[in-house]
């Protein structure tokens, strides 16, 4: 994961106490240091280190761009100069966090030094006029738990936006003919989201595999890794092919500057290399490089977003919605042939032969239970949305492949949303609650968040007052 640097521009208005605004700017920066937040301030821009003068915008902008900030934080340290904040935010085009410290009791003579809350109301309106999306963190004290959680959650939002705007997906082969559901509009993804595809034909993958086998050392390392952490139920030659495929895909991801991949995993591939690609996908997924099945580009985008929301702390898994639980009315089987990362498994995984195919090379393991987020980016007719919500792992019958039975709040509602679209039978899961992060990131990316369980009011409360 790249560094997430926050550009901090404390702001004031002239009719309120400048010394008090300077004091609160300093306190805010100290609190960010205590929390371990990496940031760039504007202390060197003017004597006060505050944003209030239109003439300072270009200097602040140049400094923040040079530092590579991924988000803009606008602490309103007395009232704030709303149009200067809006002009800077418009130029930077990064996520914006709007916050101000809670105002103290008025002085004995009735004077007030700050009116920070009032300034937040003004800046929110002007940001809307400028068509600048922003995240609001409730008017609270620096020591309140909302502040720490809200700032750290905002950094996750910044990470999703940054990663999404710089995503390049290695497309290994065209989609399988039978998978009309995974077709996508490559040009539109580039125009709307700057998501780029790097398509390569399967023979290029085969050539890279052959090269990896000739060089040998990396392939041997992967074989040893697999033997150390998985049960191997395939031949040595088949395991070597798994390792060579993993090394080849890794090399091609690097060659084309990609951060994810989507592979045409059947049927031409198996005929070409004699194995399923699932175990190799699993190994790359474990390294934080999402690889999805059936050339599902929208699925790869979903995985990229979920990984970014998790800040690289937890691996994602790419799954099919498959069948309903035989005993639980809100239970569903999430399963795929075997591409899930090893760290997701609740038991020692095996490399074996999957359901529905005769070729070896898939991972077999039930995933860990616990709370998780499920999501799916998809679209048609020029409109894109992100289906998202919560689930928890539950007990259920054994099945082959990588799988987990989950329970959701209302399966019939979820089923209806998946069927009526624009979604398909694929989703991405992560063992974290990243629903508020993904919901808020959609605001900056032009994606409609589509919640299948929580209400918008519940999720928004976790954003502006995250306790």
Task: Give a short summary of the structure.
The chain has helices at 18-34, 57-67, 82-92, 116-129, 145-164, 186-193, 202-215, 217-229, 236-255, 268-273, 278-286, 297-309, 411-420, 435-445, 456-464; strands at residues 6-8, 39-40, 71-75, 96-99, 135-136, 168-172, 196-200, 231-232, 260-263, 291-292, 316-324, 331-336, 350-352, 362-366, 370-380, 383-394, 402-407, 426-430, 448-451.
Report what the structure shows.
The structure is a single chain. By secondary structure, the protein is an alpha/beta fold. It has two domains: 6-143, Rossmann fold, CATH 3.40.50; 168-464, L-fucose Isomerase, Chain A, domain 2, CATH 3.40.275.10. Helices cover 40% and strands 20% of the residues. The protein contains 15 helices and 19 strands. The protein has helices at residues 18-34, 57-67, 82-92, 116-129, 145-164, 186-193, 202-215, 217-229, 236-255, 268-273, 278-286, 297-309, 411-420, 435-445, 456-464; strands at 6-8, 39-40, 71-75, 96-99, 135-136, 168-172, 196-200, 231-232, 260-263, 291-292, 316-324, 331-336, 350-352, 362-366, 370-380, 383-394, 402-407, 426-430, 448-451. The strands form three sheets. The chain has a six-stranded antiparallel beta barrel. Helix 8 packs across helix 9. The longest helix is centred in the first third of the chain and has 20 residues, at 145-164. The protein is elongated, with a radius of gyration of 25 Å.
């Amino acid at each position: 994961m790249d560094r997430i640097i926050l550009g901090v521009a404390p702001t004031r208005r002239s009719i309120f106490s400048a010394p008090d605004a300077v004091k609160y700017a300093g306190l805010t920066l100290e609190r960010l240091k205590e929390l371990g937040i990496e940031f760039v301030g504007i202390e060197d821009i003017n004597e006060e280190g505050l944003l209030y003068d239109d003439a300072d915008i270009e200097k602040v902008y140049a400094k923040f761009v040079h530092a590579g900030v991924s988000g803009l934080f606008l602490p309103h340290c007395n009232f704030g100069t709303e149009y200067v904040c809006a002009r800077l935010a418009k130029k930077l085009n990064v996520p914006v966090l709007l916050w101000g410290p809670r105002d103290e009791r008025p002085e004995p003579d009735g004077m007030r030094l700050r009116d920070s809350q009032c300034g937040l109301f003004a800046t929110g309106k002007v940001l809307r006029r400028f068509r600048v999306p922003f995240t609001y963190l409730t008017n609270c004290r620096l020591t309140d738990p909302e502040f720490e959680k809200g700032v750290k959650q905002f950094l996750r939002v910044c990470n999703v936006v940054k990663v999404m705007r710089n995503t390049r997906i290695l497309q290994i082969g065209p989609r399988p003919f039978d998978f009309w559901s995974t077709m996508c509009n490559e040009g539109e993804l580039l125009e709307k989201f700057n998501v780029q595809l790097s398509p390569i034909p399967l023979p290029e993958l085969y050539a890279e595999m052959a090269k990896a086998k000739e060089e040998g050392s990396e392939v041997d390392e992967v074989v040893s890794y697999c033997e150390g952490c998985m049960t191997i139920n395939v031949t040595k030659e088949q395991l070597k092919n798994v390792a060579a495929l993993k090394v080849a895909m890794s090399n091609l991801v690097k060659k084309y500057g990609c951060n994810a991949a989507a592979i045409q995993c059947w049927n031409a591939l198996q005929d070409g290399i004699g194995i399923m690609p699932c175990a190799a996908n699993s190994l790359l997924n474990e390294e934080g490089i999402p690889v999805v099945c059936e050339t599902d580009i929208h699925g790869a985008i979903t995985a990229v977003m979920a990984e970014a929301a998790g800040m690289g702390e937890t691996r994602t898994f790419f799954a099919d919605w498959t069948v309903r639980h035989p005993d639980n009315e809100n239970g569903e089987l999430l399963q795929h042939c075997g591409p899930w990362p090893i760290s997701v498994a609740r038991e020692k995984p095996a490399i074996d032969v999957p359901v529905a195919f005769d070729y070896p090379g898939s991972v077999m393991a039930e995933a860990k239970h616990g709370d998780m987020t499920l999501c799916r980016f998809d679209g048609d007719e020029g409109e894109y949305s992100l289906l998202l919500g919560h689930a928890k792992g539950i007990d259920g019958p054994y099945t082959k492949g990588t799988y987990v039975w989950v329970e959701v709040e209302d399966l019939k509602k979820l089923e209806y949303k998946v069927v009526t679209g624009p979604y398909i039978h694929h989703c991405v899961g992560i063992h974290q609650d990243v629903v508020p992060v993904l919901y808020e990131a959609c605001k900056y990316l032009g994606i409609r968040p589509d919640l299948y369980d929580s209400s918008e009011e519940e999720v928004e409360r976790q954003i502006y007052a995250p306790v």
